[in-house]
Design goal:
Mean pLDDT: 78
CATH superfamily of the largest domain: ACT domain
Strand content: 25-35%
CATH topology of the largest domain: Alpha-Beta Plaits
Helix content: 25-40%
Shape: globular
Number of helices: 13
Low-confidence stretches: 110-116, 313-320, 448-455
Strand order of the largest sheet: 1-2-4-3-11-12-13-14-10-9
């Protein structure tokens, strides 16, 4: 028994020694670059590490302008040039300190990083994970059920892709303002929400889980939709693919024993994060790479354990549309290029789906209002009654304020009538709801001038009367 305790003690001391020897080094420099903040991370290389570092930057809404990624043996060295969403350097010392602490905490963790996303225990929230067949008004129905069951939605992320939908929702008990602990209450929530998700479809098309804790919503949504096989709904996928700006090709490069994967898509925020999510779920690790997203071109090269990625982009005119192109050189764990058609399709589908899940460009609605019980249920109901369908949603409450973003489309797929938007703002409140124009919104028809009114006004104008009188006098 004593020898076992001694072994455990030695193992603990060994772990501490390894942690001390391999401690991460994070340096943030605002002087090294004229137009960006330079973030350098040196640490032990681990699977998923690059994804988690990029996740930290994405969660702070930072834009990666350039990055240099390399590894030497088991050591990982990354340099990121980042700005805020306005393209400015990071000047707030609190943000800089938080960024440094978060990156050090992420890089220093020597625990095993699994491909799945864990749920952190919490007594403050109940976590709901939902997947099912998308249909108009589904989110409104879910919110109505939660409201009737005395659940308050604190935070939520909702994605739709290829007729499928997934959501990660944090709720609290209206009475206790904490996690829902009553087993009967939880069972009722699960049963009713499952019936809503199922709708008229087969029960196998819907999934519903309830747990107490927190998770990274965006990372988890990628996995929920992947598990739901949103990339395999071929009938709708073919229709969506015709409209999609993402193009993926897979070719063998036999002289170097690589398989070349090229991806062309619009550049946008969090594109690198979404791409790394797909690669991580396919069990690829990045070894070397460069990322360059300038004003007119985005260029990324990532060399993986069995994959190299090249991302380039071109600027298209005054519309400020960026097209990103990715070229991947992949090699499976057996060291041979991808040879099967099934594996080629798998790579194409996974990358296309990961990029397109967040790429919806419908009408964007931003809600800023005082939070109250049932607010989300009312808002989603009004959106549904105005003939609009929610394609993606980001729902947050903080300090008694509701800050929600909805991406909506017309239920039948047509352009959104401006009258529907006017009705929406009138019911919710012009001050509370901000509408961002987009191609999804049909322009208002120009008002036709009344010829009679125009001529009456013209003849009554003093300057026109004087002109007519002068003209006839001179003519005579």
């Amino acid at each position: 028994m004593g020898s076992l305790q001694a072994a455990e003690m030695n193992e603990d001391e060994y772990t501490k020694l390894i942690r001390l020897m391999n401690s991460a080094r994070v340096v943030i420099d605002n002087d090294a670059c004229e137009d960006a903040t330079v973030v350098q991370v040196d640490c032990v290389k681990e699977h998923m590490l690059l994804l988690q570092l990029v996740q930290v930057l994405s969660d702070l809404n930072l834009v990666i302008k350039k990055a240099y990624i390399t590894s030497d043996g088991n050591w990982f060295m990354d340099v990121f040039k980042v700005t805020d969403r306005e393209g400015k350097k990071l000047r707030d010392q609190k943000i800089l300190d938080y960024l440094k602490t978060s990156l050090e905490s992420t890089a220093c963790s020597l625990t095993s990083r699994r491909s799945s996303v864990g749920i952190l225990p919490s007594k403050d929230y109940t976590l709901l994970e939902l997947t099912g067949t998308d249909r108009p008004g589904l989110l409104s129905e879910v919110c109505a059920v939660l409201n009737d069951l005395n659940c308050n939605v604190v935070k939520a992320e909702v994605w739709t892709h290829n007729t499928r939908t997934a959501a990660v929702v944090q709720v609290t008990d209206k009475s206790t303002h904490g996690a829902i602990e009553d087993p009967n209450h939880l069972s009722k929530i699960k049963a009713l929400l499952f019936n809503v998700l199922k709708g008229d479809s087969d029960s196998s098309a819907a999934k519903m889980t309830v747990s107490v804790g927190l998770t990274h919503a965006e990372r988890r949504l990628h996995q929920l939709m992947l598990d739901d096989r949103d990339n395999e709904h071929s009938v709708v996928a073919e229709k969506v693919k015709k409209k999609s700006s993402t193009q993926v090709t897979v070719l063998n490069c036999s002289d170097r024993d690589y398989t070349v994967v090229t991806v062309r898509s619009k550049d946008r925020p969090k594109l690198l994060f979404d791409t790394l999510c797909a690669l991580t779920d396919m069990q690829y690790s990045v070894y070397h790479g460069t990322v360059d997203a300038g004003n007119s071109e985005a260029y990324q090269v990532l060399l993986l354990d069995c994959l190299m990625i090249v991302l380039t982009g071109s600027y298209l005119g005054s519309a400020k549309t960026y097209i990103g192109t990715q070229e991947h050189y992949i090699r499976p764990s057996d060291g041979q290029p991808v040879s099967s058609e099934a594996e080629r399709r798998r790579i194409i589908q996974h990358l296309e789906a990961a990029i397109e899940r967040r790429a919806y460009e419908g009408l964007e609605l931003e809600l800023h209002a005082e939070d109250r019980i049932g607010l989300l249920s009312d808002i989603t109901r009004i959106i549904r009654e105005c003939g609009l369908s929610i394609r993606r949603a980001e729902i947050t409450t903080e300090g008694g304020k509701a800050m929600d973003t909805f991406y909506v489309s017309e239920m039948s797929g047509n352009l959104i009538d401006a009258k529907a938007v006017d009705s929406l703002r009138k019911q919710i409140g012009h001050a509370a709801l901000k509408v961002k124009r987009s191609p999804a919104l049909s322009p208002k028809p120009p008002e036709k001038a009344n010829a009679t009114t125009f001529l009456d006004g013209l003849f009554k104008a003093w300057w026109f009367q004087g002109f007519i009188t002068s003209y006839f006098l001179n003519f005579r």
